[in-house]
Amino acid sequence: MVTRGFTGRRQPANVVDRIPPGQHVVNDFPVLSAGPTPKIAVDKWTFTLRVGTEPVMTWNWVEFNALPQTQMTRDIHCVTTWSKLDTLWEGVLIDDILARAGIAPPTGFVLAHSYGGYATNLPAADLTGGLAMVALRYKGQSLEPDHGGPARLLVPHLYFWKSAKWVNALQFTLRNELGFWEQRGYHIYGDPWREQRYTDD
Amino acid sequence: MTEALILARPVVHWQTAVVKEVVARTARIKSFILAPSQPFKLLAGQHVNVRLTAPDGYRAMRSYSIATPPENPCEIELAIEHLEDGEVSPFFHEVVEVGDKIEFRGPLGGHFVWTSTDGGPLLLVGGGSGLVPLMAIIRHREAVAPDLPVVLLLSARNWDDVLYRDELLALHERRNGFTLALTLTLEAPKRDVAYGRRVDGSMMAEVLRRLPSSPRHVYVCGTNPFVNAAVDGAMAAGTPACIIRTERYGI
Fold this sequence. Notes:
Chain A has 201 residues and is mostly beta strands. Chain A has 2 helices and 11 strands. In chain A, strands 1, 4, 5, 8, 9 and 10 form a 6-stranded mixed sheet that branches. In chain A, strands 3-2-11-6-7 form a 5-stranded mixed sheet. Chain A starts with 23 loop residues before the first strand and ends in a 28-residue tail after the last strand. Chain A binds chain B through residues 1-10, 21-22, 24, 28, 30-38, 78, 80-82, 116-117, 146, 180-181, 183-185, 198-200, and chain B through 3, 6-7, 9, 11-12, 16, 51-55, 58-63, 87, 91, 95-96, 100-103, 108-112, 224, 228, 231-232, 235, 241-242, 244-251.
């Protein structure tokens, strides 16, 4: 249906093929979250890899920063319709976390857990193969609490609610368990190019 | 309970509503009253996605909170602030007229919602048009739990910028458990205006004391710095993080 009188803006021609359907480019970095912003001191921070309920390995801040660091420049897409291009992140690839723990993905699914109680679910295959990292820096600076600091998950090829802020654990699960927003009507997978915003999209 | 309701909700498909009325609320905010083609079931605090389509197929989509409560299934009120550099809000303010058709899907959002089974007391904190989802909660409370203790701390730039001012002042005057605490960031306090500054920790501690007992739920909506200031203040005054729900504009 054409909306009477609406012409709208067009995305710049040089980036139009980088903007998924229904998205628009922003230059600022919007902050969205469902509750208070956790403020985690790095000397209290830990990150745990679990298989089911069993912890495989836990790192403190110093140990985690000693893992191989990788840079990634990616476009990111929020389900609320903003996209931000060429964002520069630095952190630890999930591949390098698994390598350090000495395991290959033991199940097909992962729940990412965060300080503050947030969780989101992902197929393990979307976290490995260089696709995802635990990001520690944005544009060369430590991550601010508003943007998920000290550390957030970065899974840039999925809607950005999957890139859990304040991440503190990855848990391999047998089934694809629903996370926080996934239980509240959001899509189980969240591919922006297929516009998988809500459960039945 | 709330989540069970959300999980049970049907497929959220695109539908068309007719603009039934346009009401100028403040210099920058207009309400668009939409009439959906069938009764619209929602929970207080939810939003819709609105989709605009240009003749060449280009589309823009935005989320807007709903101000109408579940008691009014034949109308969907969206109170939209005019953002000068925006794409969709200027279209609503400058182009949309009564009788136009608007595509939308919803209701959406399963977290920033309140039902009578959630109970109270409630502390609601809104900045500017961040009042909109809280207004649905306030109106719903009037219908289903009219003696539930609620304090609304509302921040606006000045007296004329206060969204739903007359409705809120009238509710406050009924003294049935609803208390309005108004703060104006660009004007001094006066009659009906408790504060003349941005939300801070001592303000949050004071408004919490205006409830008969600690709140069961706290809802905060506005810009990100506004939400952070309100949440930090509430937590410094002893409010546990787990009872605070936030909705942020993103900016």
